[in-house]
Amino acid sequence: MKIGLDTFACDGGKPGVGMYLTQFLKRITPSQALFELFGWEYDRFTYSEAAPNFEFIPQCKVQGRTANALWHLYKYPKFAEKRKYNACFFPAANRCLPYNSPCPAIGVIHDMSPYLGYRKTIEKPGALLRTIMPSSLRRLDRIIAVSEWVKQELVKHARIKENRIEVVPNGIDHSAFYPRQRNEESVLLIQPFSFRRPYVLCVSRIDHPDKNHIRLIEAFGIFKEKTKFPHRLVLAGGESNNAGLVKEAAAASPWRNDIFLTGHFPHKSLPELYAGADFVVIPSMFEGFGLGALEAMASGVPVLCARAAALPETADHAALYFDPVNAEDMADRMVTISNDSNIYNDCRRLGIERAKSFSWEKCVGRTLQIIYEAAGK
User: Fold this and answer.
1) What is the predicted pLDDT for the residue at 122?
2) What CATH number should be reported for the domain holding residue 281?
3) Which candidate, 66, 161, 246, 258, has a CA 20 to 30 Å from the CA of 361?
4) 24 with 167, same domain?
């Protein structure tokens, strides 16, 4: 059995869809099936550590979203037929997808927001993709949603019948994210940075308005005014859409000296960064799953998150929630978690328990079953 695996639009293995693919590849054994990767030339060695035994075939020499969308529309069918795939797996099906496939196609949908108008722009992932994507999704043989919220978005906006969509939640690497002993050092050395404690943490790409950093910066200022606490705000994530607006908001804040933007942060160092935080805030307007909440909970760090999209589904009863469009409400939760040790400890305990419900082994195991079923194994 030969399975094609599309690595296009997987962010070069970076957190998010890229990490999903990396964790998926790590848990496949060559004896299960012959997986063959294809994607951008510059990704040739991106997944070599996670999948050293799988061949990588570079495709689509012209870079860019439009060129890639056209490749999937017109070149992919002949490519898949020539490679004689029994099935093809699209781990970023919400970003790139063919209209037709000569073999069964299985797609994972992480988030519908890029082409449903939430951004009020057609810049990402491109006008062509926004036009054909709903129809392409309906033509998939098997559809995987990472949350019930994403499933309902597919039903509503792509008009896919509920019984055609299976929810397979993302996982967590418990060997990396787990409660660590907290020391009292005032400065943490986490390569390539040093962080002064105490700090409030938000791990997310800097993307306005989706990730809602500007309101978080406003809420942090209210929190500082109310408490006079020495906390700092750490925003860890690479720059994306309208990152300049977030930087401007941070620079304009009266508390700008206590706001630290790290830029892209090494994933291998994230567990230490989480472990050193007093609490984690996830203000996002749109999250298809909310992996940051899961990573924080597994690390034994209390989570405050927006009551929006899939975040309540992922965090369940283990987080404190706020209205993402109300900076005062967000700040109130920050004050509460900082002042009430009982609530702090309850959130920490419940978060650790909630995180135990998720694992990459469960996620990948079920996903492989779906792929094999579609391929006729």
Assistant:
1) 37
2) 3.40.50.2000
3) 161
4) yes
| Sign of CA pseudo-dihedral 21, 43, 1, 140 | positive
Q: Which residues, in sequence order, are CB contacts of 289 under 8 Å at separation 6+?
A: 110, 146, 147, 150, 169, 170, 310, 314
Axis crossing angle, helix 341-355 with helix 291-298, rounded to the nearest 10? 110
132 and 223 co-located in one domain: no
Per-residue pLDDT tens over the stretch 283-293: 999 899 999 99
Query: Are residues 261 and 127 part of one domain?
Result: no
Residue pair 353/12 in contact (Cβ under 8 Å)? The answer is no
Nearest 5°: phi and psi at 145? Answer: -110, 140
Q: Is residue 90 assigned to a domain?
A: yes
pLDDT of residue 116: 60
Paired sense of beta strands 199-203 and 193-196, if any: unpaired
**Do 116 and 212 fall into the same domain?**
no
* DSSP line for 286-348: --SS-HHHHHHHHTT--EEEESSTTHHHHHGGGSEEE-TT-HHHHHHHHHHHHH-HHHHHHHH
Same domain, 167 and 211: no
* DSSP-H helix ranges across 198-301: 213-227, 243-252, 270-276, 291-298
CA distances from 141 to 99, 120, 131 (A): 12, 30, 20
Q: Residues 312, 94, 291, CA angle at the centre, nearest 5°? A: 35
| Residue 178 CA: distances (Å) to CA of 175, 300, 305 | 7, 7, 20
Tens digits of residue pLDDT in 225-239: 999 999 999 999 999
pLDDT of residue 65: 81
Regions of the chain where pLDDT drops below 70: 30, 32, 113-131, 377
Domain limits for position 261 = 187-355
Is 176 within the bounds of a domain?
no
Give the pLDDT score at 127.
57
pLDDT at position 191, please? 78
